[in-house]
Amino acid sequence: MRFHTRVLNSKFKTLGQSRPRMRSSGWAFNVVMITDIRPLKEALEAAVPRLVAVRERGQTFVVSIPVAYPSGALAAAHISLSGDQCFVSDCALGLREAEMSGASDFFDAAAKDAASLFGVGYDGASLFVASAPISRIEGAIVAVANASASAVGRAVLRAAEAKDRKSNSVLFDLVSDFFGKANVSRKAEIAGRDATWEAHNVVTLDGQQAVFEFVSDHQNSIASKFQMFSDIVKLDERPSLTSVVLSTEKMSKKAHMLIDVSHVISMDAGKETFSRYARIAA
């Protein structure tokens, strides 16, 4: 029987099928489907040159990298040679991206953090590797591209957070005018079912709390408020929860998620609307 097993195994291996296995009632077979991977290989070979492009500009090479800035634009590294060492820089592309995103005031600090994280240099405008051996050029290109994109991402996030703080301050003044400053806390700890959250513009009327949180269209602002409200709304006895946006008519699709966990009103809704929602639990 051992001899016949080897013969059968050899036969079915040649046919591209799985080995037979012995049952008490006789031989049984598992059929293996063989997939032709050549179309995938061809597609990948065609895709890679489109993902990474190299352009020559005099004595400098520009390499486009599949690392995206918040705007969706791809990062690029400018490479020049001095002796046997390469100078690799984003050529201030990150700074320009931050400027176009309205986050230039936050780029310098963000770039310093990114430079430290990725082990590259920063001169106040560009992120770079000053001296990279040709044999290690790939690592230098990747480090500069990632540092540049990270710096812009951090700057845009900090700009959005600063905008939220300013808008929350404006909202605090508005809510204070509506309900009286003695009844409004700029910040307060609000307990949810699973965690405690720092809420803004918390109104207390006859022992009942109402939260009015400003929410911008930035995804981090939407996500953080959605997370907080999702936890608080699970309580049987909870404060009124209201997301305040610049305009309910111009809300992004992502911002519409807030409707599931809170009331949503415009900043210019008026005292009557604010007063009504202050007394209605979300």
Would you kindly provide a written description of the structure presented here, covering whatever features stand out?
With 282 residues, this protein is of the alpha+beta class. Helix 3 runs parallel beside helix 5 and helix 4 runs antiparallel to helix 5. It contains 7 helices and 13 strands. Helix content is 40%, strand content 28%. Strand 3 and strand 4 form a beta hairpin. The strands form 3 sheets. It has a 6-stranded antiparallel sheet with strand order 3-4-5-6-8-7. The longest helix is centred in the middle third of the chain and has 43 residues. It is elongated.
What brief labels describe this structure?
single chain; 282 residues; alpha+beta; six-stranded antiparallel β-sheet; disordered N terminus
Biggest sheet, spatial arrangement of strands:
3-4-5-6-8-7
Computed CA radius of gyration, to the nearest angstrom: 30 Å
Strand content bin: 25-35%
What is the residue-mean pLDDT, rounded to a whole number?
88
Unreliable parts: 1-17
By DSSP (H or I, 4+ residues per run), the number of helices equals 7
Order of helices and strands: HEEHEEEEHHEEHEEEHEEH
**Computed structural class:** alpha+beta
What is the 3D form?
A: elongated
As a percent range, the share of helical residues equals 40-55%
Instruction: Report how far apart the termini are.
Output: 75 Å
What characterizes the major β-sheet? 6 strands, antiparallel
> Could you tell me the number of beta strands?
13
